[in-house]
Amino acid sequence: MSSDDVSRRAFMRTAGGAAAAAGAATATAGTAAAQEVEPDWPSAAEGNVGSYTDARGQDSVTISVGAGDQGLAFDPTLVWVDEGTTVVWEWTGAGGAHNVQTVDDGGPASLDSGDPVGEEGNTYEYETSGEDAGITHYHCVPHTATGMHAGIAVGEDVATVEVGGGSSDAVFVPDAARALGIATFIAMVSTLGLAFVFMKYGGTITRQEQA
Hints:
The protein has helices at residues 3-29, 175-210; strands spanning 36-39, 52-54, 60-67, 73-75, 78-81, 86-91, 101-102, 123-127, 134-139, 149-154, 160-163.
């Protein structure tokens, strides 16, 4: 075996490794962004603030009653909890007298804090159970017309929607990853081009130089 053949084969092994690395980088750049989901809330339950908290895994969660600029909101407005979680509504003292009550046909959880109260620090506690599984839409009765609504989702058996990335099946590639993919593709083509030139003319050029 001639020294030209040995050099040519060594070069091809190097070129092949570079091409494989370029292909791997390009494939990595094409990984789709993960989708997130949250409960499919009734539109009216988003209320005046529309804040959302995923409180699954927590033993308890506190919701402010009388939140927002005018004290006419629940915050967080939308909460997802496990069965057995204790939900505590705590009054801020703003916005007048409020209460917590499930709207008519609003869902499985029977929320009812009683008569409206305006005192700061007043609380209403409700421990969720399997009977509350699903999504419940509730409101403040005195301020229902002004948009003081909210929602609570209990358990894993709830209707959900994808958020943060839409429902398209198309692969999302960040700008930085796209640039990396293009650069590695160019490097791969250049490497293979040099390999072709070396294979076709390398031995001839070497023999001419030796002559």
